[in-house]
Write a structure and sequence with these properties.
This protein has 396 residues and is α/β, with parallel strands linked by helices. The chain has two domains: 285 residues, 3-Layer(aba) Sandwich (Rossmann fold), CATH 3.40.50.1000; 100 residues, Alpha-Beta Plaits (2-Layer Sandwich). Helices cover 45% and strands 18% of the residues. Strand 9 and strand 10 form a beta hairpin.
C-alpha cells in the first residue's frame, strides 16, 4: 500500500472505520479476533510507515501538487495500540498502557474508588481529549477499536443511552463518520448538542431562525472565499480545518503541533474577527470563542430575554428534553477536558446535585474551575486512563 498524497492518507484512515468496527463488535461478543480486519489495519500502518520522513514529519502532496509536512502521530500510535491489543491480548495491552503512563495504576485504582458503587442514570462525555486521544486533524481522528471496546462495555452500567457530545459536526466528516462503537449503543451529539442522532437513528436538531441561518450562510461563504487565498490556505489543512456545523462554524488557526507561526496565527484570528464584525456589526447574531487552536463562531440563542452563545450545557438540556433522560433525577456522570466542558457540568448540577465529574487535565486552573462547578470531582492525566477506569469498573 503506497500513500503519497494527503487525500490518499485521509481515505486510507477512513477505510479503517469499518475494520475497527468489525474488530470491536466481534470482540465484545465473545472476545474473538477478526483476523481479516486486523490484517487491513496492519497494511494501513505499514503504508503510513513508508511515507517519506522529514525531521519527524511525513511528506505528502496536496491537491495542488504542493508538498506538505504532516504530523501523523495520532494515527500511527492508535493503529499500533489496536494491533498490540488484538495480537498480544487484552492483559498485555493493559500492561502496555501502564508502561506508557507513569501514574496509570494509581489513577485507575483511585478512579474506581471514586465511582464506588454508584448506579448512574446518565453518562455524558466529550470526545477529543476526554475519551479519545487528540489528533492533528479531525478528519483522520478515527476511534480505535480498543477504545470502542473499553467505552462500550461501560454502557452496560448506565440506565439510559450514554451521550458523546462534541463541538465537531454530527455528520458529513463529523463524529458519526469516525466512530466505531457498535451501533445503537450511544447517542451522538454534534455542534455542542445543537444536533444529535438518537439511538434509534433519528436526527434531531435545535431550531434555528431563518434570519440567523441566512447570516451563518453568508459567513460561511465569506470564510470559504477567504481560505481560498494563497496566504490563508494552510488554515484549512491544519487541525479542525474549516468546519460548517449546525448553528456554528469552526475555523482552525493553529494545531496541537503548533505548526503555524504564532504571529501568523494571531494575524489570522484578527482577520476572521474583522470579517465577523463586518457581517454582524452589532453583535446580534454571533459570538466568537477563541480556544487558541480554533476560532468558534457561534449563533446566539435567546435565553431570558437576552442573546447568548449556545454552549454544551444548552446541548445537554436540549437532549434531555427531547429524549426524557431524567437528568434532574441523577445520578449523572459528566466527563470533559477543557473549560468549554464545564457548561455540561453546570447544567447537570443545576438539574441534580447527584452529579459526578471526571476531567482529563493537568491544568491546575481548570481543576479549580471544575471543583467550583461540582463538588464530586476526580481528575486523570490521560484519556487512556479514563477509558481504563470505565473498563475496569465494568469488569470488576
Amino acid at each position: 500500500m503506497k500513500i503519497t498524497s494527503l487525500q490518499n492518507f485521509i481515505d486510507q484512515m477512513l477505510k479503517t472505520v469499518e475494520n475497527r468496527r468489525q474488530l470491536s463488535s466481534k470482540y465484545l461478543v465473545n472476545k474473538e479476533v477478526d483476523f481479516d480486519a486486523l490484517q487491513q489495519l496492519i497494511a494501513v500502518y505499514h503504508g503510513i510507515e513508508q511515507i517519506p520522513n522529514q525531521n519527524g514529519w511525513k511528506l505528502l502532496t496536496l491537491s495542488e501538487g504542493e508538498s506538505s509536512r504532516v504530523n501523523v502521530d495520532y494515527e500511527t500510535e492508535e493503529l499500533k495500540k489496536d494491533i498490540w491489543f488484538f495480537e498480544k491480548g487484552e492483559n498485555q495491552f493493559i500492561k502496555h498502557l501502564s508502561e506508557l503512563h507513569s501514574a496509570y495504576w494509581q489513577e485507575v485504582n483511585d478512579g474506581i474508588e471514586f465511582l464506588d458503587s454508584i448506579k448512574f442514570r446518565n453518562f455524558i462525555t466529550d470526545r477529543d481529549g476526554t475519551i479519545n486521544n487528540y489528533c492533528g486533524r479531525y478528519s483522520t481522528s478515527v476511534q480505535s477499536a480498543y477504545n470502542a471496546i473499553f467505552v462500550s462495555r461501560f454502557t452496560t452500567l448506565i440506565k439510559n443511552k450514554p451521550i458523546i457530545l462534541t463541538s465537531a459536526p454530527l455528520q458529513n466528516s463529523g463524529i458519526i463518520d469516525i466512530s466505531v462503537n457498535p451501533q445503537d449503543l450511544f447517542i451522538y451529539a454534534g455542534s455542542k448538542g445543537r444536533e444529535f442522532r438518537a439511538a434509534d437513528g433519528a436526527i434531531i436538531s435545535y431550531p434555528i431562525e431563518k434570519e440567523k441561518q441566512e447570516m451563518l450562510d453568508t459567513l460561511n461563504a465569506r470564510l470559504s472565499e477567504l481560505t481560498k487565498q494563497k496566504e490563508y490556505k494552510d488554515f484549512k489543512r491544519i487541525g479542525s480545518g474549516l468546519q460548517f456545523k449546525f448553528g456554528q462554524t469552526t475555523m482552525a488557526r493553529q494545531d496541537i503541533q503548533q505548526s503555524i507561526e504564532s504571529e501568523r496565527s494571531e494575524s489570522f484570528l484578527q482577520e476572521v474577527e474583522s470579517l465577523v464584525q463586518k457581517i454582524d456589526p452589532d453583535g446580534r447574531y454571533f459570538r466568537i470563542e477563541d480556544t487558541g487552536l480554533d476560532i468558534e463562531i457561534i449563533l446566539t440563542i435567546d435565553r431570558n430575554g437576552s442573546a447568548k452563545d449556545f454552549d454544551k450545557g444548552d446541548g445537554i438540556l436540549f437532549i434531555n428534553e427531547q429524549q426524557n433522560l431524567g437528568i434532574e433525577k441523577g445520578p449523572n456522570l459528566i466527563c470533559g477536558d477543557t473549560a468549554s466542558d464545564i457548561a455540561m457540568v453546570k447544567a447537570s448540577v443545576q438539574q441534580s446535585k447527584e452529579t459526578y465529574t471526571i476531567f482529563v487535565t493537568k491544568d491546575e486552573e481548570l481543576k479549580r474551575q471544575v471543583r467550583q462547578a461540582c463538588s464530586n470531582t476526580f481528575f486523570v492525566s490521560e484519556p487512556d486512563i479514563l477509558l481504563s477506569i470505565l473498563n475496569k469498573k465494568t469488569l470488576s
